[in-house]
């Protein structure tokens, strides 16, 4: 049911690294980042407290081609460092739009960004600052989707918003199966037993146990983020 005021007070947005590439083959596209940040700033101006977990897939992924033959943990640390680069770019763009952003990293890299300290993150959110969580969970063998579930639970977010390339959860990967149909809502158990592939099982399990719902929506659809925040029927809701 749409509201006149935001339906949520504190949200955690998971932004895929690949969303920052736009149509480029690699890296960060400033025009794309500017547009995404504009949408985030709009919901922040409505009084919603915003935290972001940023991915790194546009630069490096522990499981991708560039890491073949590498020790997995080492490759994953490279992936986490990639998310730090994205976090810096995102916070820079946020600061330019008038939002005040703070980056907090799960691995210590003190000359570059401050470490993740939960009470400090909560303080920033209360002050209306946007907090960008970098370096995922700080552990190899995890993903930034799991980091989103973890940080979302830690900061008491009411909803995890998975901002991605597709406009919801489908019966099969819509990029591979044209017959796939989109769910308006589904339970965590369904998402996990059907192996729907949009998020990893660790992230789903953590959100399920913490009763933290997830909205999957397209970051490429203008206005979709605001619609989700207003409680509109946008994307797919994954719930307990
Ligand atoms: N059942 C499904 N419903 C929706 N998307 C799916 C599904 N299975 C796999 N996907 C894929 O998951 C991707 C979204 O996850 P995301 O984490 O943003 O991408 P990536 O893993 O490439 O960073 C989409 O690009 C989509 O192709
Ligand atoms: O807690 C974490 C989060 C991320 N990563 C590494 O960082 C990469 C980039 O993150 P992810 O693939 O989740 O980014 P996205 O798909 O959102 O762009 C991953 O492939 C992993 O190699 C990790 O090891 N631990």
TrEMBL record:
- Offer a single GO CC term for the protein: cytosol
The record's EC number reads: 2.7.4.22
Q: How is its activity regulated?
A: Inhibited by UTP.
Key words, A-Z: ATP-binding, Cytoplasm, Kinase, Nucleotide-binding, Pyrimidine biosynthesis, Transferase
The GO terms this record gives for MF are:
ATP binding; UMP kinase activity
What sequence ranges are listed for the domain Aspartate/glutamate/uridylate kinase? 9-218
Pathway listed for it? Pyrimidine metabolism; CTP biosynthesis via de novo pathway; UDP from UMP (UMPK route): step 1/1
Protein name according to UniProt: Uridylate kinase
